[in-house]
Amino acid sequence: MNAECFPITTLPGLSRIFADYCAGEFPVRSWYGAAPRDRSWQRTPPLHSPAHRADLAQLLASQNPAFSLTPAYEQLLQGANVVVTGQQVALFGGPLFTVHKAATAIALANQATAAGHTHLPVFWLASEDHDFAEVNHVTFPARHSLNKLTWENSDPNAVPVGRLVLDDSITPLIDQAWELLGYSDAMEWLAAAYRPGQTLAGAFAEFYGKVFATQGLLVLDADGREAHRLGAPVLKAAIENADELHAALVERNKEIVAAGYHAQVAVADHGSLLFLIDSATGARLALKRTAANAAEPQGIWQAGRQTYSTADLLDILASEPERISPSALLRPVFQDQILPTSAYIGGPAEIAYFAQSAVLYERIPRGGASHITPVLPRLSATLVEPAIAELLDRHELSFETILNSTEESLAQRLAARVMPIAGKQQLASAGNALDQELTALTGYLGSLDEGLGRSAQTSASKMRYQMNRLRRMAANFVLQKEASLGKHAQAVTNALYPHGAPQERLVGAAYYLARYGESLIETLVAEAGDGCPGHKLIRL
Question: In terms of DSSP bridges, do strands 284-290 and 300-303 run parallel, antiparallel, or are they unpaired?
Fold first, then answer.
């Protein structure tokens, strides 16, 4: 196996705030707790009290059956901190970047431990989210196609996605996965985890618990009473200081926009940082906030059609803490109240909205700390299977070429490359001669009259277009004669840049886990820890 490191900006579609964060640009760096490659977080002193750690250890042990039997259990009790990453729970393990996140958390926790500062890797299950459309599907490659498997649910937005219970409709999807992925340990684990009667969060946790069993990764689903009890101080602060926190976020958004960036998460006029779980239906309802005024000194809260006072919400938090749920901006702070987090591993979108969450860290102390938790970029990588690597080498294709091509344009490129030399020479000669003559002619006509020159430029553009069309016609002729070239272009784009998106965002992680098993995990952990500041091309 070998890997190449490319600048992170090689990938298209990244937000400018993320790109500038990776480059350490001002003023972005002032919105974060550390630079992307800073390792001072390793020396963070132990966070949280012994009593809190004991409760946390019990919570983790209840969700990770072997944890209490490992040295890590005692290490957590004695002051070890954690490196955290997380992701929405998704069908069949979700996209490949999920594994990249976990591998990065493991790699950095191992590095900190080797440096004498014991850390444990934790994967936070974002099971309280309610955007079903983001998690109900997965895409697996097969031969020359990409197959999207989708799980339908009759009432997908009724409850947080993690609580959705898999029914018999999951069985035919498992059967399709067997057909697409074939037999492997990973497929066995997938079929066992995603079974009727299991929740989506439970299936996701069970699958990755087995995938990373030998790497020491701990999974944590915080959608429960005990986790929310541990995180209650942050939720309490978000209730009691709602107006102050909202004003701080509004100001931070203005600051971000004034600096020329886009605020990742909108802050609505009557929005808040909290959701309320309806006691009757289990639905996750956004809590809207009317700020304190003369008529309502404590302000008013509303969830659906029901209104609440601040005291009402504090009573719910005290008796049923699991019913108060944090928003995306508050979740990192809530997470770090529960966990002794030294560093968080995030993707581009998460890192972008950390610029907003930073103002909450500054105003809500947690676990004995008031600093902004450093957020560090996950491994960003494209995996190249041997058959695809052979095609790249045969056709002398660079990674940048793939990212800047469609399947059609790549096929034409391959066809042009195999065109007989005589044909290439004649097309090149004609094109160069035409361009040279047109440049001279349009320059001369423009010297006679400005308007005539503009008309000449328009006509010249049309002639150049026709010359390029002639080149494409010749390439298409070769392409029709060499049908394999079209299949090669299709195979390469489907594998590395499917549907015009980076592989890690679209292709399901289970596909690669099924094909390469434990060796893939070991490779990704090693690559995540080697310090590449950008995007990796990893040949398997």
Answer: antiparallel
CA distance 125 to 137: 17
**Out of 116-125, 163-172, 351-360, 465-474, least confident range:** 465-474
Q: Which long-range contacts (C-beta less than 8 Å, at least 24 apart) are formed by 191-195?
A: 194/91, 194/92, 194/166, 194/170, 195/166, 195/170
End-to-end, the C-alpha distance of the chain in Å comes to 5
Of the candidates 384, 412, 409, 392, the one whose C-alpha atom is nearest the C-alpha of residue 500 is 409
Spatial neighbors of 256 by CB under 8 A, at least 6 apart, are 17, 31, 262, 263, 355, 356
Rounded to whole angstroms, the Cα distance separating 384 from 536 reads 10
Confidence label for 480 from pLDDT (cuts 50, 70 and 90) = low
CA torsion 137-138-142-144 (nearest 10°) is 80
Where on the phi/psi map is residue 254: left (φ > 0), alpha (ψ -120 to 50), or beta?
alpha
- Encode pLDDT of 81-106 as tens digits: 999 999 999 999 999 999 999 999 99
Cα gap 124→231, rounded to integer Å: 14
- Decide if pLDDT at 472 tops 90: no
In the 8-state DSSP scheme, what is residue 531? Answer: -
Arithmetic mean of pLDDT, 363-375: 79
- Residues 477 and 27: their CA atoms lie apart, in Å, by 53
